[in-house]
Amino acid sequence: MPRVLIMFAVIFLTLTLQSTALSYIEIINVKPNLPLLLIVSYAHLRGDMGGAAFGFVSGLLQDLLFGRVIGLYAMLGMIAGYICGKPFKDFYKENYLIPIFLTGAACVSYEFLFYVTYFLFQGKVRIISYFGRIILPETMYTLVVTIPVYRFIYNINRRIENHERFTRKLF
Fold first, then answer.
1. Average model confidence (pLDDT) for the chain?
2. The pTM is what?
3. Is there a domain that residue 25 lies in?
4. Range of the domain at 114
């Protein structure tokens, strides 16, 4: 239960930062995608099913707070969490190259799928322009903040796991 409450608070904090403070540090009208970075980090630490559930909840809250269509961010977050959680057991959690690679690939895929599901169905067929103005700069900007955010989520996860291990020993 503490894991759920703590991670819900982290999601809420991330969405609050995404909508308020990050607006002041935009570069060429692009800001890092912190909710996606949070999903990728959590999925890498907890696995595919945990990542999918976390991505769904994070995306659903993002839909409710900022989305125009309910379910789009939830679907994209769930897909990103599931796919990024697949190498969970194969790699060390302390390795920073894996989260960087996963974040880059997830950001490009996430934004491309967002473009396909949101803009392409409206008849807006400017993928090259969207890629150059939105996808590539957002991916680069998100990669810059990957290590500090991953380290933050890693520390939270480690403390929760230590607490869970301690409480399990009591019984």
1. 89
2. 0.89
3. no
4. 2-13+30-157
